[in-house]
Design goal:
The protein is globular, with a radius of gyration of 19 Å. With about 300 residues, it is α/β, with parallel strands linked by helices. The protein has 14 helices and ten strands. Helix 3 runs antiparallel to helix 14.
């Protein structure tokens, strides 16, 4: 009987049930159109590893914005090298200018000079994960140090955390949002698997008076076992609990490819609410670009055919 009821609710309800999410009412035309628009112009995040430029050029349209991460292990120079190469090939590319990896004011000016010389006009400024920061322990301090040079960039992004950051307290992340927002133009949320956590966080950001567009951070289409390892490593508290709680979904993590269909459909109404001001989806690809792009295009086709 349960399966019959699920089938009557349609394929969307089945996808949401597999994720352990209540499907609610059937997706309307406005919600479907919002998802299509968001998937047509997402942000794709990549890691600055060898060969990634070739993957971007082979699989990603130049109409899609590509963001390049920064890490303590690889350093900012790796981020800027990939950024410069992709920009030189006509890709709209956004480097992560991780505040804790910038040594001092002179290093900051050098980085900005390189980006502007490469005609890069957008940067994303997270605090970063370096245990021993340089001159700038926080994104707000680096943005402040940029001073008038912030005006050289048409867009400046900052990070939002639907869940606790593994290095920064919740109180600090909330306070940092107020400090950073006047110097930024949009927010990208950290990866999260729980649509209700995302929904609640966005509402709270708006209730606190921050009105910048929010790009919802979701995994792309990647190997599920790898996704679980990454999620546990970066300390996704509620998401880790979510994975443990929905045990009917957990066994498939070891053998199947993750796709965010159920997540985006559970958030369809959020994407249509003008008060929430969602910019779209920021897809963490972990360099699985061919797989993620195939999923993105097929999902657009599927949603369009459901009209």
């Amino acid at each position: 009987m349960t399966r019959v009821r699920a089938l009557r609710r349609g394929p969307r309800a089945l996808r949401l049930r597999r994720l352990g999410v209540s499907g609610g009412s059937a997706m309307g035309d406005a919600e479907r159109a919002a998802l299509i628009r968001s998937l047509e112009q997402p942000r794709l995040e990549i890691l600055p590893l060898p060969g990634v430029e070739e993957r971007v050029l082979a699989h990603v349209s130049k109409t899609i914005k590509v963001t390049v991460t920064a890490s303590p292990k690889l350093g900012l120079d790796a981020t800027l090298r990939v950024t410069e190469r992709l920009a030189g090939r006509g890709v709209t590319v956004v480097p992560h200018l991780s505040a804790r990896l910038v040594r001092d004011e002179a290093h900051l000016q050098e980085l900005l000079d390189r980006l502007l010389a490469a005609e890069v006009r957008e940067v994303f400024v997270p605090a970063g994960d370096a245990q021993r920061p340089g001159r700038f322990p926080s994104a707000a301090e680096l943005l402040t140090a940029m001073g008038d040079r912030r005006a050289s960039f048409a867009q400046i992004g900052i990070t939002g955390y639907p869940e606790s950051h593994h290095l920064i307290s919740d109180e600090a992340t909330i306070e940092a949002m107020f400090d950073k927002a006047p110097m930024a133009t949009y927010i990208v949320s950290q990866i999260c698997f729980d649509p209700e956590t995302i929904r609640t966080w966005i509402a709270r950001v708006r209730a606190r008076g921050t009105s910048l567009p929010i790009w919802i951070g979701l995994p792309g289409s990647i190997d599920q076992a790898r996704l679980v390892r990454i999620s546990m490593k970066i300390g996704l508290g509620a998401s880790a609990r979510f994975l443990r709680t929905h045990r009917g979904w957990l066994p498939r993590l070891l053998t199947r490819t993750f796709t965010p269909d159920a997540l985006i459909e559970a958030l369809a109404d959020v994407c249509t609410d003008p008060v929430l001001n969602v910019g779209g989806f920021h897809l963490y690809t972990f360099n699985e670009l061919e797989r993620t792009e195939r999923w993105r295009r097929e999902t657009i086709e599927r949603l369009a055919s459901e009209d």
